[in-house]
Amino acid sequence: MTMLKTLAPYEFKSSDALENYKGKQLLYVNWERHRMFSRPFVLALPPETPFAVILEQMAECFSYHPDWSQIDWNTVVWQNGNTPFTPDRNKSLKENGIGHKDLIRFRTPGLDGIAGTGY
Amino acid sequence: MDMKAAKKLGLKERYSLMTRDLAWDTTYQKMEDVFPQTTYEGIKIHDWDKWEDPFRLTMDAYWKYQSEKERKLYAILDGFNQNNGHLSVTDARYINVLKLFLGSTPPLELMAARGFSMMGRQMNGAGPRVACQMQAVDEYRHFQTQIHSISNYNKYYNGMDEFAHQQSRMWYLSDGKSFFDDAITAGPFEFMVAIGFAFEYVLTNILFVPFISGAAYNGDMAAMTVGFSAQSDEARHMTLGLECIKFMLEQDPDNLPIVQRWIDKWTWRGTRKLASVGMMMDYMLPKRIMSFKEAWEMYVEENGGALFKDLARYGITIPKCFGQTIEEKEHVTHQSWIGFYMKPDATPFHTWIPSPDEMDWLSEKYPNTFDKYYRPVLEYLDAQEKAGNRYNNKTQPMNCQVCVSTMKFNEPGDPMEMCFRESVYKGEKFHTCSDHCKEIFDNEPEKYIQTFISSHQALQGNCEPDGVDVNASDYKPGSQMLDYWKLDKRATGDFNGSDDQKNFAAWREQATKN
């Protein structure tokens, strides 16, 4: 339900509609309890992109953090938004069920940032 | 020969003649056709004559007071400039405060001038119409005087000359732009609550009193004079906003839920906008006057709390977000500064790690949080910088769809967790930074789906300087954003080693030696 009151019909397109990305889709990525990065990063990629590419992008951004090299990838807990999921690195975003503007969150148990600050 | 002069008019009579008496009712057009905006939001006004102007200020008196203030202001600015006042500030780091202020505040004052000019046309009572016109002139004056006071610094320091170009383009200025775009595209009564009330009360109190006192503490007479000169106008603006709220509530009980929703919304939007002002107080003033937390307690919890008690007789309750703002006052400035520190290439001002004694000040002011959550991170980043590995995150950020802040705030109750909220509208996902931003989105999704998010626009190829072929096979989105922003590269990067740091030291040396 909307509360927006206007004098005339009010219909505008979303600034971030999927068609604005010319065959790509937006994807957000966040490393939980590692807020040094201040915010998740955003990528625009074709839905056919293998999940392995996301892992490369993650390394590029997050490897500054001393916890990065200590991650045990077998224990990493993944979420798409608030829903748990297990990505297949060899399958595409689409095959992994990742849609436009999904937020991939991953937790690394036992690693809680610099001096346990969550940063 | 005796002169028989007519008795001078009293204040009330003058006000009546020079405001209400200038208005008329239309005859060959319907009043509702001439003033269509005053009804569509659902606000019911039965008698515009019940509007009480708290100042009963007439134009002739207004010009007189304001011109007097203006002469004093420009005399002090001239004196400051002629005496090389820019060298009398505590430290060249201070000048970065002015760069941030210049990008974020004068353009918003200009938007306020536009907004109040529109309200002066749309309000169909003569009292509020004249008051809005005078506020529009004040806002225009603030826009001009702020730019004039900083222009002296622009002659000597980098990064100040493209603020007008950057205002509608740069990522970190989007929160203020969105605040005013939201307000100015609302109806006239919502605009009055947004700007006349939330912005003037929640924001300008903290911006123009403790922050501007900080300018005085740091030797910046120019900014101090502008701030104090503006604050006497702001007092009038706050009273106008409050009067408008009381007027709506007194006119019809049906107005209460509408006004309450606006108060909830705009108090939160103002709070988010204030995070960067707080960061200036806690991190960017070399000589600190009070912490953001202390300012929040004094100006929002105590003063604002008293105000809401006053409004309680109309049925208004404390804004829903109040509890969360009390929790967040411990965190937002630290989270914001780390956020800016991580993007040294992408702002026209410098950032730095606070010195050990500054960290001790922060520990003292934030005993519950600073040493536990933020000091270890700042010390780590400092050690990395000293080892030649200065932090520089080159990725594009995720932003809140409503306040347009980067998603950097914590989950209420857990400072270690990031807060995310999600809505779906017409099959598309939209992310917000908090329950309050989510609620704002869910109430009016049609409006916020249009939000300008710098990183998204870059990825669409909309943030390139002229001449870039976004259809070329080797085109990389956002690769030339710095040129699109017209960012002066000398103004970017860490403060340590910057031109501003070196020049300030050299000029000060010249000013004190033969």
Q: What series of H and E elements makes up the topology of chain A?
A: EEHEEE
Helix content of chain B: 55-70%
Largest sheet: number of strands, sense, barrel closure of chain A: 5 strands, mixed
The 3D shape of chain A can be described as globular
Overall strand count of chain A: 5
Number of strands of chain B: 4
Spatial strand order of the main sheet of chain A: 2-1-5-3-4
Q: Which blocks of ≥5 consecutive residues of chain A have pLDDT under 50?
A: none
Molecular structure report:
The complex is a heterodimer of chains A (119) and B (514). Chain A is of the alpha+beta class and 119 residues long. Chain A is built from 1 helix and 5 strands. Chain A has a 5-stranded mixed beta sheet, with no helix packed on it. The longest helix of chain A has 12 residues, at 51-62. Chain A is globular, with a radius of gyration of 17 Å. Chain B is mainly alpha-helical. Helices cover 59% and strands 3% of the residues of chain B. In chain B, a hairpin with a 2-residue loop joins β1 and β2 (414-418). The radius of gyration of chain B is 24 Å and the shape is globular. The mean pLDDT of chain B is 93.
SSE blueprint:
The complex is a heterodimer of chains A (119) and B (514).
Chain A: E1 25-31, E2 41-45, H1 51-62, E3 77-80, E4 83-84, E5 102-107
Parallel strand pairs in A: 1-5
Antiparallel strand pairs in A: 1-2, 3-4, 3-5
Chain B: H1 11-18, H2 31-34, H3 37-40, H4 59-82, H5 94-104, H6 106-122, H7 126-154, H8 163-167, H9 174-184, H10 188-217, H11 221-251, H12 255-284, H13 292-311, H14 322-328, H15 332-341, H16 356-365, H17 370-386, E1 410-411, E2 414-418, E3 421-425, E4 428-432, H18 435-443, H19 445-448, H20 454-459, H21 481-484, H22 499-512
Antiparallel strand pairs in B: 1-2, 3-4
